[in-house]
Amino acid sequence: MNASIVQKKPVSIWLVLSFLVAAVGLYGIIQVFTHGQEESYGISREVPWGILIIGYSFFVAISVGTAIIGSLAHVFKVDAFHIMSKKVALISLASLIGAFYLIFWELAGPFELQALRLVVYFAEFETTSPIWWMVTFYMLELPLLALEVYFLLSKKSNSAFMAALVGFFLGVIAYGTLAFVFASNATRPLWHTSSFSLFFIISAVAAGISVILMMIFFSKESSNKKSISALSKTLFILLFIMLFVDVWNVIINIYGVETELSETMRQFVGNGVLSGNFYTYEIGLGLVIPMILIVVAKFENSFLTALAGFLAVIGVFFARFDTIVGGQLLSRPSSQMDFIQHTYNVSASELTLFISGLGVVGIVYFLGAMFFDLEEETH
Amino acid sequence: MKNINKKMKKDQNLAMVIVGDRCIGCDACYVACKTDWDVPALKEAFRTKVWEVEGKDQYGNPTIGFLPTLCNHCDNAPCVAVCPTGASFKRDEDGIVLVEPDMCIGCKACMVACPYDARYYNEHEQTVDKCTFCLPRISQGLDPACVTTCVGESRNFGDLNDPESNVSKLLKDATSVARLKEDEGTLPNVYYVTVNY
Amino acid sequence: MSRHNINRRGFLKLAGATGIAATAGVTGIPSPLSASAKKESAKGARFLKYDRGVHSPSFCEMCFWNCGVDVYTRDGIIHKLEGNKLNPNNRGHICAKGNAGIQSTYDPDRIQSPLIRTGKRGEGKFKKVSWDEAYQYVFDKLNPLVKKYGPETLATFMHGTGERYVHMFSVALGTPNITVPAYSQCMGSREMAWALTYGTGISGHETFDLANSKHMMIFGRNFAGAVQVREAEDFAEGLARGSKLTYIDPRQSESAVNATDWLQLNPGSDMALALGFIHVIIRDNLANMDFVRKYCYGYNELVEHIKQYTPEWASKKTGIDAKTIERIAWDFAKDAPNVVAVPPRRMTRYGNDTQTVRTIAILNALMGNWGVPGGIFIRTAVPLDLPKHEHPPATKARRADGVGEGEKYPFAPPSLGRTNGIYEATLKQKPYPIKAWLLYGTNPISHSSVGVNNLYDAMNNLDLIIAIDTQFSDTVMYADVVFPESTYLERDDAPYIQKDKVPFIALRRAAIKPIYDTKGCYDICKGIAEKFGLQKWFEHSPEHMIEQLLSSLSDEQKETLEKDGTLLFEDVDPYPGASGGPLKFATTTGKVQLYVKDLEEYYQKEGDNFAPMPTYIEAPQPKKDEFRMLFGRTPHHSHARTQNNWILLELQDDTPVWMSPKDAKYLGFKDGDMVRLINTKTGFKSHPEPIKVTERIKDGSVFIHHGFGHQTKAWTRGYNKGTSENNFISDGVDPVSGAAAFHNGFVKVVRA
Ligand SMILES: Nc1nc2c(c(=O)[nH]1)N[C@H]1C(S)=C(S)[C@@H](COP(=O)(O)OP(=O)(O)OC[C@H]3O[C@@H](n4cnc5c(=O)[nH]c(N)nc54)[C@H](O)[C@@H]3O)O[C@H]1N2
Ligand SMILES: Nc1nc2c(c(=O)[nH]1)N[C@H]1C(S)=C(S)[C@@H](COP(=O)(O)OP(=O)(O)OC[C@H]3O[C@@H](n4cnc5c(=O)[nH]c(N)nc54)[C@H](O)[C@@H]3O)O[C@H]1N2
Ligand code: SF4
Ligand code: SF4
Ligand code: SF4
Ligand code: SF4
Ligand code: SF4
Ligand SMILES: [Mo]
Question: What is this structure's pTM?
Fold first, then answer.
């Protein structure tokens, strides 16, 4: 590797912390090795996708969100977004690796077979399978993100530009297919809507901006009013759109005839099983309070905007949780029967694995920070 | 490409025809299936399940009925469509939908896609598993395990392409025929009939 | 790292490392661990193979119905049980319990060797002993008791295929106190009533021709839920062929599926309902008078007697509207004689049980359905002359349970005895000391009213409790010496010879060698008998009896039986009534006794319970805020013997308390709330159970499934799952049959 981009710094406290957070996952790993998925995970035959898939989609959202902002900056020259591009690219890469880490634990089977299965995987073109497309795109996206980081670090700005451009499209397409993995399920009316992918993308960008706002607070850019203002304003608008869509989505679908969708929506309101999550975390903590904070911050206070970003990220996580879980909690054997309300309780193993995913993202990022020079020259 | 054409041409069209009101809810099928196929000792692990359906008649009096369920071996199987590896596939010759354990990566997309919750994650095999229409048994000329044991003689199995088969006859003589969630467009091969003998 | 090492078959997972996997090595059984997980290359190729394995014939022992079973064994491990297609008990099908029978063998919680108690009774501390030590122990303890009190101090209880050997030992020792719970805890009152009316019982394999019936009128007999396969098949078949179904039960059981009418009557009022039906039938001239004139005794008396029991009267007692009673009576009579009125099987309910079944018997007689398709079929014995084995002479000693001529229960059969009477005699040590129990395949603690009867106190009066069982039931935990019987899949048994619609013989051959240090009941009883010098009554082992049977068959029959496991004797006529053939009734009058002269004498002394013509007897009623404790079978379990079976536990591991919406509202309970039952007599409190609010149970009653609430910690899966109704039921007695009455127990329901 180009010597100029490699520079070793002392081990940061953040890296140590990341390792500690990642180590939490050992509990889940040991559980799943000794007892298997069935016993260790809270997922069930009716709710097969739980927090690991949710976590996957969450990390991927951060990855694509940050990547979009990054590319908006240097591909589309949105100047105000042009901030910490190396760090942004690196966090995007780290999040994607974190996402893959989580999906690894979600996948089942003896691990020595996974490699073999990967070959099988591409041997046939399973073109009807959204997951097949999604994985294919991500298989391409991951090296592109790595390349982009490399080019940025080695200051090959033209190549970085190209990588970012291709990465942008691939990322959006890959992310779109991820949304489609859910939306394609005709049996799941909550997901099977045209707005689903759009909402997915909007919240991803919001998550991306939020993460960048947090990173700004912790960097020497915390006085960069221009960027903070542009980012927080955009975040505000996105949060507002999400709030609007969320609320109307619920209202529209609950009114009118009794359908599976309206039944599903009922879980989010009144004393529905997900209403606590929905009101408190998704709407309150994740949308309303961040919007208030951003206003209070007058779009410039780096601490308050970072805090808003932090809460918004939590909000996006819960939004994912509510949608992905909520889409699976009702089922019935026949259309003549009442719905059966299932439950999904995150198990300790799943939770520790999810938490360790955060650690993995941290490890990748802070290792990068340790070995590479991520500070930008001012333009 | 896997076969998900709406009108499949199969040498045999294997189907289960369940005479609804002969089911007495004894769950013999559940146990026979679990034993024959070493389905793990877990409440959630099963290939067939009988629902006790409590309802009301036209006068508001309580009623009960039983609904045996299993994989429908759909002709338009969403589980097959979503499978990224080809582990879930539909046999061209008879329409049986299978999961090849060696190919399954356990992504559970098929479980999410199946409108009938017919699949489960098998901890022993470490793959997703479901009803095979007892292909191992029928390949040896035996009836499926659940059909063999069915106390109410509610379950019947055979080839719908053969007009002389018991299932064809049952469909012909049926006073009503239904399949589960037909509106999902899955084209199931498990039929629920009422018959006047 | 691979997770293959946790890849195990279902039962092995539960068998645990020390369980059968370990013994497999000892007995040379290859472990399926190595056989599994063999990967195939071609996609789906693995699904084209099926090794059915080695076949051996047997019959099921998961309940007392004894369906024919084909056992399939691969590499010395039983992998599948299937119904024997020829066996008339089940025609190729087996129920959930029957399918789960493999578990009874591969359950490491089984008793694995002879044991002698070391701790306190019930504590569950035993030491492993050799067979000889165990036999010697019995001799050392029992002989002094026999010397001191006489052989009648030993009471034996037996339920299951090995009964004959326990019986042999008991008779040889000289005790009269031999009991079979299937009488006084189960069918006693029903059989008594039928015998008084028709001269013969319904028998364990009931003679109702459901498959051909045009109208099944079922009084609280849950054919679909209390599954005995042939009957469940016939029930489903009858319905499919268009039979009407009048299902009578305060609870909407599984059998109410497709009922034309479900009559949710007041518990205990079946007799009133049947009397009402009879009233309408006689009033409106609907009886089958050909049959009545030809075969019935006491019709004129009945005509007079029944006048008082108008539909309006019946309606008051039953809560069923008078119009409905009339309509159904007409309907039922319209299809006569191809109709059948079915009494309950476990007829240990209200203390008026014999007379209730008498009424139902009369209802049948008025339809003239004896020996008619769709009515009551006639059984024929297997037409074989098998060598008679010599039996020890029976003692003339007085029984302790009040059974016998001149005793309190002169009608009860001494061959079956009153289990409940023995409990009482043991508790009171009257009429003479009962100091020892020998229990074979029966578990009184889970099968009688422990609450009021105080079975534990009774057992504390005993100096010796001997148990022959396969698992550590609550009662086995109280035993002093325990003999582990091999399970039905591990042992040969005497040929199964059944008098039936189509009489038949079935074989049971051991499919595998015993996994643990266990023996069949024959060997166990012989071992004990040897110590007493009684071995000469044990010349005929099961294997020997199979040999004897086979040698009395033609070559062709022999081949069929050995190959197919079942031999039918089809040249019989179960419907002599239809062919006009003369019908015979082994009653005192030689006729169907609408009026039972035999009861007259007792009627004078004892009153209505012994009325020669059924006279309504009201069951005790709950007080305000009390609920009647009802219970019944679940299709998922057999009695109290399968609640440690993992597959069946998956199907059901709890006992929700059923309560009507009206009662629940009154008490302020919602569906799913946790409640406790309190026995209003003893104050006993159940542990918390969820409440199931449903219109499927009559106001004023609660219902739970029977068989749960085991307190034996040796059951690693079944321990303390659900509640046992035994703590809440009554210890009544039907005065005629002497059988138990359980349904007059009352409870309060409180929030847990
Ligand atoms: N409270 C209450 N009491 C009841 C009833 C009720 O519903 N409620 N029902 C009544 C009726 S109808 C009946 S028939 C009786 C049944 O009463 P039981 O005969 O006592 O009942 P089970 O639980 O079937 O079997 C008793 C024992 O037999 C053992 N066993 C099983 N297989 C074998 C074997 O092959 N060999 C040996 N040696 N033992 C074996 C089991 O482990 C179990 O401990 O209960 C009666 N009592
Ligand atoms: N699955 C399974 N099947 C079994 C058994 C088993 O343990 N498990 N045991 C076998 C044996 S030994 C026996 S004896 C039989 C028992 O067979 P059944 O006698 O049919 O069984 P129960 O469940 O005791 O009672 C049947 C019904 O009687 C109802 N009942 C209660 N009180 C009244 C009343 O006052 N009037 C009327 N009309 N109905 C009332 C109950 O609600 C219940 O639904 O089952 C046999 N079959
Ligand atoms: S029932 Fe479900 S698992 Fe079976 S073929 Fe249809 S979609 Fe697939
Ligand atoms: S879990 Fe297995 S069978 Fe199901 S979709 Fe994924 S790879 Fe295919
Ligand atoms: S056909 Fe075979 S695999 Fe399918 S439910 Fe029946 S027994 Fe189970
Ligand atoms: S075995 Fe037959 S009758 Fe019994 S529950 Fe299953 S489908 Fe119904
Ligand atoms: S009814 Fe069920 S448990 Fe009883 S003998 Fe038959 S198969 Fe066995
Ligand atoms: Mo019984």
Answer: 0.94
